[in-house]
Each structure stands twice: as structure tokens, then as C-alpha cells.
Amino acid sequence: MSSDDLDCPVCIEQFAHRRLRYNIACGHIFCLDCLAKISPRLCLMCRKAYSEGDITQAPVASLSGSELALFVLYIILFYFIDAHDGMAAKRISPRV
Ligand SMILES: [Zn+2]
Ligand SMILES: [Zn+2]
């Protein structure tokens, strides 16, 4: 998988979880922020016209393997920090 698939060619920001990818009629992918700004409605990559009806959300499950691994790592990390803090708080709390 090339990294081009993960970047919006307009803003060159990597698609994060909250920044969804959208396909237009020609098959090129942009983020919704940039699609809203494009005027007239011509694909910036191939200049093909598209209408709002052509915009479809691209599947979200297209994270690369490394991104997915990082995401899972974060979840595990947060879970352990949370659990550890909970145990520490119980240990420190004074007995009444
Ligand atoms: Zn964009
Ligand atoms: Zn295009």
C-alpha cells in the first residue's frame, strides 16, 4: 500500500480517525474539509467534475499495519496506566 492512499493530496495531512476519507466519482480520495473548499467541483487530481451525490465515505478500515499496531499499543498503554493508577490510589488511600 502506498502512502498516497492515506494522505489527502490537498492538505497533505494524514487521515486521522476523526478525519474521514471520501471518494469522489473518479475514485480519487480527499478529506471532507477539502472537498467542501473545492470550487468549482472539479477533482484536483484529474479535473473530472463531480457532484455532491458522488461523494461517498471511503472505508475506514484502511489503516496500514503499522498505524493499526500503534493504535492498539496506545489502547493497551492507556489501559495499563489507568489500572495502575487505580491500584496505587487504593494503596495510598488512608484507612478509616
Ligand atoms: Zn484535505
Ligand atoms: Zn480525480
Annotation keywords:
zinc ion binding, single chain, 2 helices, mainly alpha, binds zinc ion, three-stranded antiparallel beta sheet, 96 residues
Give the gist of this structure.
The protein is mostly helical and 96 residues long. 35% of the residues lie in helices and 8% in strands.
What can you see in these coordinates?
- Helix content is 35%, strand content 8%.
- The chain contains 2 helices and 3 strands, in the order ββαβα.
- A 3-stranded antiparallel sheet has the order 2-1-3.
- It is rod-shaped, with a radius of gyration of 21 Å.
- The model has no long low-confidence stretch (mean pLDDT 78).
- Bound molecules: zinc ion (ZN) (2 copies).
Query: Compute the gyration radius: what is it?
Result: 21 Å
- Strand count: 3
The fraction of residues in strands falls at 5-15%
Structural class: mainly alpha
Portion of residues within helices: 25-40%
Q: What is the CA-CA span between the terminal residues?
A: 59 Å
Q: Topology as H/E string?
A: EEHEH
What binds here, in terms of ligands, is: zinc ion
Please, how many helices? 2
